[in-house]
Amino acid sequence: MLLHVVLSFAVIIVVFLVLPLIVGQTEHKVMAHMQSRLGPMYAGGFHGWAQLIADGVKFAQKEDVIPAAADRRVFMIAPGVALVPYLVVLVVIPFDRDFVAVDLDLGLFFVLAVMGVGVLGAIMAGWASANKYSVLGGMRAAAQLMSYELPLVLAASSVAMAAGTLSIPGIVEAWQWWWLPWQAVGGVVFFVAGLAELRRPPFDMPIAESEIIMGPMTEYTGMRFALFMLAEYAGIVVLSFLTAVLFLGGWHGPFLPGWLWTLLKVFALAFVVIWLRVTYPRLREDQLQKLAWVVLVPLALGQLALTGVVKVLL
């Protein structure tokens, strides 16, 4: 039992350190092809394999600067607050039927609670930087969290109601292929709301380089900035994992091992995240709020009602 726990946590650490880097490398390549910006294809020779290494060396060489007027203690811990929650979430996500580090009875509730903590890193960074652009970015991040948390929770509640459990492995175990059309609206709402909470394009209003420089991260340099970037890619991995296990059946699939099906679904969803960044322009703040309250919340409530009706009839 102890060996199983140790191995599970070791795999989770490896996944947390490796998969976000793979997603970051993939984003370089996909955007290079889609936008005909082929610079990332040359670093290191074949297909630019060393681009990610070059980025890491660049961040490591940069000077670590803290503004004189900043709240130094909060400024220094903000990147960790943004990053660590995604590592904690991976502990309760099942990779396969027999591979989950901790199976909590309230696993879904735990995940939704912990994911909300990650946004606090951006808010802390914005407030502690003593920069008006950073504060504005932090306030925008807080507004997005409040707006998109509701449709995210409602969509997750729908699939939990369908499965009759809040245990994430239990939800995957109860999943049937006909849930794809039944829970499709909830899946789309969950994925879109998750993108907004991650502040990924087209929901990157808290960063908005053309307006507020880099939002909460404006004053960050070197490895602290790199930790924020790692948190962004770790968030993509976690969102893709959650969408895969809640709405796409996780390890369910023919012929291939269950863990491989899970990873294939995760990478397919991560590709969609990158694709959306390249395809859609940034929303205005009023469009951002309208999408949440006028579109996603009613859709999530409708999905919740439909799930309830089907459960009663069955």
From TrEMBL:
Bilayer topology annotation: Multi-pass membrane protein
Broadest EC class assigned to this enzyme: translocase
Predominant subcellular localization, coarse grouping: membrane
The entry's keywords: Cell membrane, Membrane, NAD, Quinone, Translocase, Transmembrane, Transmembrane helix, Ubiquinone
Reaction equation(s) it catalyzes: a quinone + NADH + 5 H(+)(in) = a quinol + NAD(+) + 4 H(+)(out)
EC number: 7.1.1.-
UniProt xrefs under Pfam families: NADHdh
Transmembrane segment boundaries: 6-24, 74-95, 107-129, 150-172, 178-196, 225-247, 259-279, 291-313
Gene Ontology process terms (BP): aerobic respiration
Alphabetized GO MF terms: NADH dehydrogenase activity; oxidoreductase activity, acting on NAD(P)H, quinone or similar compound as acceptor; quinone binding
Compartments (UniProt record): Cell membrane; Membrane
InterPro entries cross-referenced by the UniProt entry: NADH_UbQ_OxRdtase_su1/FPO
GO cellular component, one term: plasma membrane
PANTHER family: NADH DEHYDROGENASE SUBUNIT 1, NADH-UBIQUINONE OXIDOREDUCTASE CHAIN 1
Function as written in the Swiss-Prot or TrEMBL entry: NDH-1 shuttles electrons from NADH, via FMN and iron-sulfur (Fe-S) centers, to quinones in the respiratory chain. The immediate electron acceptor for the enzyme in this species is believed to be ubiquinone. Couples the redox reaction to proton translocation (for every two electrons transferred, four hydrogen ions are translocated across the cytoplasmic membrane), and thus conserves the redox energy in a proton gradient. This subunit may bind ubiquinone.
Subunit structure: NDH-1 is composed of 14 different subunits. Subunits NuoA, H, J, K, L, M, N constitute the membrane sector of the complex.
The family this protein is said to belong to: Belongs to the complex I subunit 1 family.
Protein name: NADH-quinone oxidoreductase subunit H
Organism of origin: Nonomuraea wenchangensis
